[in-house]
Amino acid sequence: MTGKTKKAGGLAGITAGQTAIATVGAEGKGLSYRGYSIHDLTEHASFEEVAFLLLYGKLPNQQEFEAFETRLIGQRELPDALRQTLRAIPASAHPMDVLRTGCSMLGVLEPETRFEQQEQKAERLLACLPSMLADWYRFSHDGVEIDFESSQRSIAGFFLEKFGGREPSPTHVRAMDVSLILYAEHEFNASTFTARVCTATLSDIFSAITGAIGTLRGSLHGGANEAAMELIERFQTPDEAEAGIMEMLQEKALIMGFGHRVYTVSDPRNEIIKTWSKRLSEECGDTILYPVSERIEEVMWREKRLFPNLDFYSASVYHFLGIPTPLFTPIFVLSRVSGWSAHVFEQRSNNRLIRPGAEYIGPDETAFIPMSDRESRPS
Ligand SMILES: CC(C)(COP(=O)(O)OP(=O)(O)OC[C@H]1O[C@@H](n2cnc3c(N)ncnc32)[C@H](O)[C@@H]1OP(=O)(O)O)[C@@H](O)C(=O)NCCC(=O)NCCS
């Protein structure tokens, strides 16, 4: 039993198509990407290996991996016109709006004119979305013009270095890497479905990814990690958190970072990210955030049989990595662009326009009323 009740709508429980990219691990099956368990991937692989797996359907051998990594490193630079666009965006903008705009602008400057270019465009986005985020953030907040040279080969290390302005510790790079692996793919979630609907009209990959970024922004989807951080930060002690959550539940408020459309008893990604949250908490001597998070988890299970999803402990992980809260959902983008792109490829490989029907619940057929005969309503 969970705190969830069956509700109509939202396409809940509907199988909307087929995929060979991931199984979300409902009904006791493990979450896997192309058949590889996320436990094995987060234990043994890097995010780049996982991105290759998603895009090309197999784990890369050494040679393929090195070539892929080198291609990504070589595409971190941004075109001048894109940098100028990013610089015109104020510091007060939400970073998700920045990435949505940056992705769209890249599609203007380097358009996908033939579907044969799809792999190259996906790699370009994977390589330069971190640059867009770091470039805009550092310039608009600190007046710093970053360069894209880096000693860090991985996307995780590159982003942490460019964002933080110094070399990140190997533990921090690995924590970020694991988080990117966990966020990389999740079947027909709302943003991926957006990308597939767009792709199915034979649109270009930049339009599909731009739409997906906009969908991810909402707090019922990717935005939940930021909302979870804002919640956790309100409390100074576990007891305070317990009292606060009880009050919120009485008011029937949504507790961000809990619950899931597909999972019913736990989110398999949670135990992995929670382990990292605990480890980073101990490393930095935190005595508040992790204990508060654990208490919220206990209360939510006791009161509502609701469990933390990936977003809940990701919030404290990012916080311990020194990342400001408004950048949490954009980091999700840096990772999920790999899964979205894989879905663009898969949709194109066996395409049919996605156009469901709707049950009409409006008025019966009505005679047209000339404007002069219509009732005037106070404005
Ligand atoms: C993820 C989510 C959107 C799934 O939604 P859904 O499948 O449509 O589930 P519902 O909204 O129908 O929830 C079913 C019941 O559980 C309750 N519930 C679900 N998630 C809840 C939460 N996080 N906090 C409090 N109650 C919650 C709902 O209020 C509802 O209760 P009701 O039937 O009494 O109205 C939902 O759990 C949620 O809003 N979670 C918070 C946002 C979040 O963490 N999103 C990231 C997902 S990875």
Describe the structure using short key phrases:
single chain, three-stranded antiparallel sheet, Citrate Synthase, domain 1, mainly alpha, disordered N terminus, 379 residues
How does this structure look, described?
This protein is mainly α and 379 residues long. The protein has a single domain (39-349), classed as Citrate Synthase, domain 1. The chain has helices spanning 38-44, 47-56, 62-73, 80-87, 95-109, 118-142, 155-164, 170-183, 190-200, 205-216, 224-232, 238-250, 270-283, 289-304, 310-320, 328-349; strands spanning 22-23, 32-33, 36-37. A three-stranded antiparallel beta sheet has the order 1-2-3. Residues 1-5 have low confidence and may be disordered. Residues 3-5, 7, 10, 12, 220-221, 224, 254-261, 304, 306, 309, 311 line the site of coenzyme A (COA).
Strand and helix order = EEEHHHHHHHHHHHHHHHH
Shape verdict: globular
- Residues in helices, as a percent range: 55-70%
Distance between the termini: 49 Å
- The CATH topology is Citrate Synthase, domain 1
Listed once per kind, the bound small molecules are: coenzyme A
> What are the segments in which pLDDT stays under 50 over at least 5 consecutive residues?
1-5
Based on DSSP secondary structure assignment, what is the total number of beta strands? 3
Radius of gyration: 22 Å
Major β-sheet, in short?
A: 3 strands, antiparallel
Which band does the percent of strand residues land in? under 5%
Q: Quickly name the level 1 CATH class.
A: Mainly Alpha
